Amino acid sequence: xxxxxxxxxxxxxxxxxxxxxxxxxxxxxxxxxxxxxxxxxxxxxxxxxxxxxxxxxxxxxxxxxxxxxxxxxxxxxxxxxxxxxxxxxxxxxxxxxxxxxxxxxxxxxxxxxxxxxxxxxxxxxxxxxxxxxxxxxxxxxxxxxxxxxxxxxxxxxxxxxxxxxxxxxxxxxxxxxxxxxxxxxxxxxxxxxxxxxxxxxxxxxxxxxxxxxxxxxxxxxxxxxxxxxxxxxxxxxxxxxxxxxxxxxxxxxxxxxxxxxxxxxxxxxxxxxxxxxxxxxxxxxxxxxxxxxxxxxxxxxxxxxxxxxxxxxxxxxxxxxxxxxxxxxxxxxxxxxxxxxxxxxxxxxxxxxxxxxxxxxxxxxxxxxxxxxxxxxxxxxxxxxxx
Length: 387
Ligand code: PLP
Description:
The chain is α/β, with parallel strands linked by helices. It is about 40% helix and about 15% strand. It contains twelve helices and 15 strands. It has helices at about 15-25, 40-60, 70-85, 100-115, 130-135, 160-170, 230-235, 240-280, 305-315, 335-340, 345, 360-380, and strands spanning about 5, 65-70, 90-95, 115-120, 140-145, 175, 195-200, 210-215, 285, 295-300, 320, 320, 325, 330, 350-355. The strands form four sheets. It has a seven-stranded mixed β-sheet with strand order 2-8-7-6-5-3-4, with helices on both faces. Strands 9-10-15-12 form a four-stranded antiparallel β-sheet, with helices on one face. The protein starts with a strand and ends in a 7-residue tail after the last helix. It binds pyridoxal-5'-phosphate.
């Protein structure tokens, strides 16, 4: 779509031109099945190996530690269910109150249907993990602790290495949902206590439909999908070859450009934040600014509805997102902001702007030009109080 100001990159990203170019031959002429005995298929298998090596390089991992999946959600489920299957005597799971539904809903489902003990660790008012609570939660019955690397709504980064070490001390496995972190922060799993790490292609300029799970060498593993020998018997199903190739190319691009791109993206984000806070009274950033992804800001505009702001921004071609979800006719504020204790009137008016390398200074100018007027107009008709 032309003229769109796309500031919703934590939802999904554009496929990078280099990534598209790399995957196209595997949609056109090189369509062989990598499991085939003939050379035509075998060549495709070589390309998958290269993609696996690229992803391993990005993570500081060994290629044998990478399992390709269909998405971040599948990776999360695979890791948590594998931990529970391989440690059947341990019936406790630790996670946080601010996880993405891919982890949160699964853990609650396991608690509700299989009687697993579940501890959800809280965060403080800046969205930082309560480490005292975490330390107290992990015990010798814990099978797995699952703590996200970075929060999708606020961008707040958690001390996952410290969390992993604590889990290991108790003989528990540690999983991190790094779907928002990979591509935005440096990651090196070489000397880490992290056993499982999930990532997703479409958050780092690869297409939708591909993810990966890092499984540390020596970690016992129980597959989620059965019925084929693919991925060394760890994930059955014919490989989505073009997507796997794309993820490998995206990983190479991240590795080559991360520092430079982070500096550029953070400069855009910081200018937007500064200008909006200066121009809009009763606006506040949610989350710990010192430990945050460089591309994310979550701002509450008090006394107005986030959904209304989004609709009006949309009329100007500006794409952002709100933490609220419209369920059964009632607007529920985000579980993340609620866990942080953000007041009701602020949580409802929260907007997330998330940048990528494809954003420009002109994108920021457009939001600064449009949003203060939208906030003013909505406050004039707000039933919540302050005008
Ligand atoms: N985990 C986090 C933190 C996310 O932000 C998302 C997507 O928004 C997911 C998991 C799910 O990833 P996918 O869309 O690839 O299933």
